[in-house]
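HUMAN:
Could you generate one sequence with tokenized structure?
ASSISTANT:
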Amino acid sequence: MQLKVPALPPDETMQLRVAAESGSSHLSHSGESRPPGHRRRTAAPSALSRLTPGLRRLRPRYPRPGRTGWRRWLPSWRQWLGAALTFVGLSTAALGVAYATTDIPKNLNSYATQQDNVYFWSDGTPMARTGWVRRQDMPLKDIPEDVRWAVLAAENASFYSDPGISLSGVTRAVWRTLGEGDTQGGSTITQQYVKNVYLNQDRSVGRKFTEAMLAVKLDNRMNKDDILEGYLNTSWFGRGTYGMQRAAQAYYGKDVGQLNVSEAAFLASLLKGAALYDPALSRANHARAVERWSWILDRMVDIGRLSPAERAEYRQFPEPLSRARGYDTGKQSDYLVELAAQYAKKAARLTDKEFDLGGYQIYTTFDRRRETALTDAVTKARKKASKDHPAMARTAHYGAASVATDGRILAVYGGPDHRTQGYNESNATTVPAGSAFLPFVYASALQNGVRKTRDDGPVDVTPETLYDGDDGIPVMTPEGPYWDRSGKRVAARNDGGRDYGRISLHKALALSVNTPFMQLGMDTGLDKVRRTAQAAGLLASSFGPQVPALSLGSARPSAIRMASGYATFAAAGTHVEPYSVARITRNGSKVGLAEPVSRRAVTAKVAEQVQSALRSAFSLAHPATASSAPRTTGKAGTTQDDTAAWYVGTAASVSTAVVAYRIDLTKSLEPLPLKGIAGTPADSVPYDIWSGALGLG
């Protein structure tokens, strides 16, 4: 049942609504009546109430009314605008605070205060100072304008107009850092200068932000020319050089004021990374350098700093010097510095760039007295060769090294003068060891035993074990004679074709009889012989094919490695990797060095048996000297093709190796026949050098 109310006329409806409203106006909030005509006062609208409608429109309402599909979930343009304005405001405030709180450091870092690296003898006295790492400041007025603009064209053409940073570049660099861990690119010259003199080389977003803040502040405080001058004097150009002046000297042998625009363009390319653009390092580097050099010259044309006609004059790449002079002593000690620098960087895990910053004190293992004696002995031999064999003396080379049983390299002879011959003869792997290699075969057989058949186990070998010492005996395998690849049966040969009959291994080594050891190597196993030699100190890279000739010294070790190998036998079978640096400090602080590797190569018993045979070899060849030096060992080494003559031996816990050979460096590194320049077995030049260096001659 429903109650129906009759509809009222429109005018009556209006009257009823007005009556209700007018009636309510006569009541107060407490329900009391108010006089007719009385109106309630209302408060003025507040600022918040005026903003409320706008805020309501900005407040997200999802799904949005009046929209269909995916558009119901998108913010309105007012919301987008509000978020953007808020972000810009907060970012501006944050950057303002960061700029205000960033202070330019008062002290420059080590990248702006380059020093020499100083090398010391083992007694602590100075030996040498490296030369090119000394930074030489050049006033901007002394740097030609073309040189400056070559750098600006390559690195920052807008340098004089930018605010010190490139926003697009910084954004790109930060993106690369976050995405790829690489901050290459994106820096203005001002930013690079800040990095050079105030910051470290850490690659992080934080460092990049600090760099940008400092660059802006520095740009507001310093003259642009001063910034450019500082940048050109602190940037790294490779080859141990910091600054454009040192780079000009290292790559072109001239002062920066003498550079032409083409040479300057090449030097500017090095700022992108000397390790990638120094042509002397590789063919790939050369190709990159030429490409970037050409681009920089074209870029100078684009920015109006070089006319097309001037650009046309530079079509030929300005080849820099093939190598920079690394050391400025010009003496034998340059070879010592070279060895020590290589070892220091490896043992201290320093990059070339870090080492080139300088400030290191390198305390070497080189003994001044021994170095002088060794150098004098070789110099004497050189003079004698020039007198007796003037034609062949021009291609004569002498490598020598003394290594202690604990691995210290005490002295080396690297060549006549590092300035004229950078080739280090003490560290060269050019000529075979010849019969100087026989002790390693002997040691391996004593250590491992021999096998005469495939099925039988190893049989022990002693110094008294007999082998056939006749000349021309065939080399045997368990299956029969050994045939080479050309189908010829391999036979062992003795010097002078001499026959010795059945001979003990001890005596065979003392007399340097080849044939027993060629067969002994086969019986022991050439792989074992090689492993023993490597364990004793020879490098794997010095070995050639694993054929019977290996036992007669086909390996090509350096004088340093041969001395180190014989030192292993004098050290009771324990080998210590040769090293040339005892300790390093940098500005008084100790720099950590990796310890030289130590390992047992052979047992102490085997080492003493080898030493005993080598003492016999020395006393048989030089009885007068041996009587006054009973613990001295030594052995000569010759090659069947007459390309090398060695003498290696130990005295007072020091092993010394000397090698004489001939090479025409203007043609190749292939050794030439000695033709008597190394003397005879009775009057051996290597022995004379060896005994002179040890004070035994």
